[in-house]
Target: Cell envelope-related transcriptional attenuator
Amino acid sequence: MNTAPQEPLPPRERHFSHSGKLKRIILTLLACLLIGGGLYGWYALHQAKTTFSKTYHALPTKPNDLALTSGKPFAVLLMGTDTGALGRHSVGRTDTMIIATINPKRQTAKLTSIPRDTLVDVYGSQQDDEKINAALPLYGPETAIKTVEHLVNIPIHYYVLINMGGLEKMINAVGGVDVVPPLTFHYEQANVKKNQKIHLNGASALAYSRMRDDDPLGDYGRQIRQRQIIKQLVLKEAGLSSVAHYQRVLGSLKDNMQTNLTFQDLLWLRTKYGHTSRHVQSATLQGKPAVINGIDYQIAPQTTIDQVSKDLRKALGLPVNVQFQTDALDPTGE
Model:
């Protein structure tokens, strides 16, 4: 056996050998990071799905599964209750009701506010002269949806009900929102000046969206600020690229939200329709103050209701002068 010592590699050959080993180490580390990142991403999504599944509450009339994936316009009723924060825990009336219409082809979204004191006939109720914000606590989300459908003559397939505690946590989860206030005021944690951009955390954004007594426009002014917060919140959420951040946002909704949108629906909306959040229009069903039996109401003239209905139906790509039937609704519009 030849036991003579091997000659060392020439300097250039030794360099290439070390370089190849270094590349293999780097590639191995990258592979481990990719696999680990994939596993973490899967775990985070699984956890987010588990968390979000607790918010799912189907309606008796389930939307067609193609309602979102068909690419046709659709509407979501956003409802907010003043519970879950500030020590309030009872099932309250809907302080916020906003119809969100999304048109994927036009890449637009429209937020139409309905004043909480709007006088309506609550769907299925024998009682006249009722405020629209009573529909949810009296009869549940399906009745609230049908009441709004009949008021403005459009089909609404989805709803999202969130309390103020959930809104506060969700805003914190995305790192706060930036707004340009339409007026100067100081209310609870909100201290803002007109036309001066300000960054709001969850508590200050909640106060910003709740104040109405010091607003010259009253509840209508509050609706403007509510739509500001929602728009900025959606923009911030759409910009989140990290799975961990997205998981944190969904986690903030635990026990604070109820919806008939599934987790898959939510991912689809975020992936396919996220761009519409940059083209958001705002509107309000404007009423006139009235007192009936000692109770304050907002009564929207029929001409105003008709105009809002036409605008909403156009946004949804529906014939303007056709009366729709909620009980014979095809979510795909076919």
